[in-house]
Amino acid sequence: MPKRIILWHNSHISVAERNGREMADDKKILNVLVTGGSEGVGLAVTKALLHKGHKVVATTTDADGALAIRRAGALPVYPDLTRAGEVLSALRMANAD
Question: How far apart are CA 70 and CA 88, in angstroms?
């Protein structure tokens, strides 16, 4: 049975399959975009990814959130997540894997 990765943001949960490979087995450094990366679970995920050596771009909506993201060591961005073009621009800027 393939391994599953649970992606969580606020009240939205989705499951992605990776053909039986766990992310922990991957040794390469990933470029990751974290939504809601300035507080709560999003900030914890941002810090965990940075601790593992990954490059992280995280979304926020205000200057305090941007400061929290910068202090963690990631790059903050301010896209409107309801606009596909802005999300796509953030993904391209992050060079997300």
Answer: 22
